[in-house]
Design goal:
Elements lengths: L6 E4 L1 H6 L11 E5 H7 L8 H17 L8 E2 L6 E5 L6 H6 L5 H15 L5 E4 L3 H9 L3 E3 L10 H4 L3 E3 L4 H9 L3 E2 L13 E5 L4 E7 L4 E4 L13 H11 L5 E6 L5 H11 L6 E6 L16 H21 L6 H11 L3 E5 L11 E5 L7 H8 L7 E6 L15 H9 L5 E6 L6 H9 L1
Parallel strand pairs: 1-2, 1-5, 2-4, 5-6, 7-9, 12-16, 12-17, 13-14, 13-15, 15-16
Antiparallel strand pairs: 3-4, 8-11, 9-10, 10-11
Helix pairs in contact: 9-10, 10-11, 13-14
GO molecular function: ATP binding
Keywords: ATP-binding, Nucleotide-binding
Family: Belongs to the PhoH family. In the N-terminal section; belongs to the PINc/VapC protein family.
């Protein structure tokens, strides 16, 4: 007897996260509460990624429906189920007793409960990225799940520090110091992805090393400073190696606050200023308490200033490592004046073609996988893109450490020749900052 198709009811935030989500439920049926279409109307205008997702979804919906009516169901294609739109339903007595407000979330719950009652022999599940709505659904006896299609399965690589091999053969370590490297096939450890950084140690000596996929060799990583910033530990040394390697076009740096991610990326960019036409340093704006920027006083620069200040702080640290009238500080001021060094909200760069640009995206843990993909696919010739962030500090209400774009990028790109990832564990701001990060 064939298995009965499941029914998945989608919340608005799932569509705003991934406008192609309706095709990711295999041969099961998908239902859109009409409230969702009503809410998408509010997001159609604007330049943010959610506005793009809303517009693309509505266009796709129009294309697949044609002259068909959603009441009978519209086919989503071969090996897929049907798409329905469910109209509004009255609140059950339980819902009337539980919720006094007929908010969009509660109207979606009313529709979901009606569908569950109508199709008693089929599994009905509400899919939403809103944790609180999932809890409300479960309280009413309704199955509810997060949208997990683009979630990272294993985040170990994002949480562990530098890989260290203890009691390693002294002869191998000597060879790395005294030669150009060791062929991969001759190295004792064979399971080594591209641009994997690690430390080899024995009782008397140690060496920082990596697997170079272009030479197919294990090579020594040397410590070097960038624009006056010296690496303070192995993680920072590895980061600067990836950030300054012209063959590595995509880098992700993860780690908690104070580990130096953004500072190292900016210092590396300035060190290589002659190799790129422009340095862009951007971050997504996630308004405080989900309030729009409009509530802040002042003009547009006053509104975005607080969000960009941490990036300017890193620039100040670099300037502080040189004298006030040093050649380096004069260069920084000239680059800012001539538009060669720009610090700006990420939304202001969307839609641009990025050629010969050193592009640093800070706080990338607040981006969706689709947003990260959009940024990378705009990279033109000669462009290098750096994503930095802390997957434990996510401000977006619908992302977590397994569904954010930074984690997704790192998992999917691991092992590619042009990609490198370093997770920085040790804080370098101060002993107090490190203590607070660990204990509070």
């Amino acid at each position: 007897m064939p298995k009965k198709r499941k029914i998945f009811i989608l919340d608005t935030n799932v569509i705003l996260h991934d406008h192609k989500c309706i095709y990711n439920f295999e041969n099961n049926d998908v239902i859109l509460p009409i409230v969702v279409l009503e809410e998408l109307d509010k997001f159609k205008k604007g330049n943010d990624q959610i506005n793009y997702q809303a517009r693309e979804f509505v266009r796709d919906l129009n294309n697949i429906s044609g002259e068909q009516l959603f009441k009978e169901g519209v086919s989503l294609g071969n090996k897929h189920g049907k798409l329905f739109v469910a109209t509004g339903k009255p609140f059950t007595q339980t819902m009337q007793d539980s919720f006094f407000e007929k908010s969009p979330d509660h109207r979606i719950l009313a529709i979901a409960l009606h569908i569950k009652e109508e199709f008693k022999t089929r599994i009905v599940t509400l899919v939403t990225k809103d944790i609180n709505l999932r809890m409300k659904a479960k309280s009413l006896g309704l199955n509810s799940e997060d949208y997990e299609t683009d979630k990272v399965k294993n985040i170990d690589v994002l949480e562990k520090g530098v890989r260290i091999y203890e009691e390693f053969d002294a002869g191998t370590i000597d060879k790395l110091y005294n030669s150009n490297g060791i062929a991969k096939n001759d190295f004792p450890i064979q399971d080594m992805p591209a641009n994997q950084y690690f430390v080899l140690r024995n009782a008397n000596q140690s060496v920082l090393a990596k697997y170079d996929p272009f030479q197919e060799m294990i090579v020594r990583v040397e410590k070097h400073s960038c624009f006056g910033i010296d690496p303070r530990n192995a993680e920072q040394t590895f980061s600067l190696d990836a950030l300054t390697n012209p063959e590595i076009k995509l880098v992700s740096l993860t780690g908690k606050a104070g580990t130096g991610k953004t500072l190292l990326a900016l210092a590396a960019a300035l060190q290589q200023n002659k190799s790129f036409k422009q340095i862009l340093l951007a971050r997504p704006i996630v308004p405080l308490s989900n309030r729009d920027l409009g509530f802040l006083p002042g003009d547009v620069n006053d509104k975005i200033g607080p969000y960009m200040q941490p990036l300017f702080d890193n620039l100040t640290v670099i300037k502080g490592s040189h004298g006030n009238k040093s050649r380096e500080n004069i260069l920084i001021e000239e680059m800012q004046r001539d538009g060669m060094l720009i610090i700006t909200p990420l939304a202001y760069i969307r839609g641009r073609s990025l050629s010969d640009v050193y592009f640093i995206v800070d706080e990338a843990q607040n981006l969706t996988p689709h947003e990260v993909k959009t940024i990378i696919t705009r990279a033109g010739d000669g462009t290098k893109i750096i994503f930095t962030g802390d997957i434990e500090q996510i401000d977006s209400p619908y992302l977590d450490k397994t569904s954010n774009g930074l984690a997704y990028l790192t998992e999917k790109m691991k092992g590619q020749d042009v990609f490198a990832h370093v997770n920085l564990v040790k804080g370098e701001r101060s002993y107090l900052a490190e203590l607070a990060s660990d204990l509070l």
